[in-house]
Each structure stands twice: as structure tokens, then as C-alpha cells.
Amino acid sequence: MKTKKKPTAAKRYDGFSAAEKSAMKSRVSEMKSGDAADEGDVLAKIDEMPQPDRDSAHRFHAMIKRVAPSLTPRLYYGMPAYAKDGKSVCWYKTAAKFKSRYATIEFSDQAKLDDGTMWPVSYALPKLTAADEARLEALVRKAVG
Fold it and tell me: Per the domain annotation, does 111 fall within a domain?
């Protein structure tokens, strides 16, 4: 007589991380309040960041204001973001929030960065140099079309 083998247990999913839960709570709060977040809220969020993220995020914010003043500062999942017609085009994702080794600048599908059949929309930013800032300026200009 054959004995049935017990199926091996699949790896247990423990759910979302604390950082992911925090981001989702921030997004729910943002959605409930509508587009009530403004530049002051974005700057306050940047000021809460640890270094070196804080300096890079302030420089990114200043660059957005300079090269794409049509973008509206807002919060997106608790991150500084910049929107056009109410939709986020790009945002600064701090390294500390997700315990990553670098921050990222990310673009949504609203950004007009299309280039063939594949193009980057997320950029690692371990340190924001002058050369990086110039490259980001060109990307933001292209993104807002």
C-alpha cells in the first residue's frame, strides 16, 4: 500500500514590510485629502529625510522648479513628487525609507521619455553630482515635453 506524502510547505509570505505599509498609508491619506498637499508639504517631507538624501532631494526640487515650473509639487506615497494635470510625472524615492543603498529618481508613464521599445524610468542616485543634475535636467525637460 502506498502512503501519501505530505506536500512540502511553500515559503510563507509575511506580508508587506513596515516601509511598504507606511507608503501605502501615506498614499491613502493623500488620496483622501485630494491634491491638498502643496510645496510646503513637499519641502517638509524633504526636511525629514536623513543626509545625504535631504541635500539631493532639495537640489532635485530646486532643479524641477527651475526647468519645469509647470509641474506641481505634491506627495506621492509619502515621497516628493511633481505632477502635470494632477498625475505624477516624477518623484524622489529616498534611500532611507526603503533601506536601500541609494535613492532613486523615478518617472511614471506620464513622462514623455519614450525611446524605441524600451527605455529607463528609474535612476539610481547614490550621490547627486553636477553632471548627474545636468542629465536629470534633460530628462525632466523631455518628460514634460
Answer: yes
